[in-house]
Write a structure and sequence with these properties.
The chain is of the alpha+beta class and about 70 residues long. It is built from one helix and four strands; from the N terminus they run H-E-E-E-E.
Length: about 70
């Protein structure tokens, strides 16, 4: 695993709209094509973004709403 994919569990979840807004700000020409919710409480959601014909996998912390990293 990438260390950026780890999340510290919390009782509250971030707004998905806030996560989308952050991704749109970071990838203004990108298009969200898939969103995979974490299947364990210590992992980030993985959001697939297509930009310039490249596929990026964005690690979004479901508790803080912050983008913690990416990979192609």
């Amino acid at each position: 695993f990438f260390k950026e994919i780890r999340a510290t569990p919390s009782e509250t979840l971030a707004s998905r709209n806030a996560i989308v807004k952050q991704i749109e700000d970071l990838y203004p020409q990108g298009k969200i094509s898939f969103w995979s919710a974490a299947n364990a409480p210590y992992l980030c959601d993985i959001v697939q973004v297509i930009k310039d014909e490249k596929r990026y996998y964005i690690f979004a912390n479901p508790y803080t709403g912050k983008v913690q990293g990416e990979t192609t």
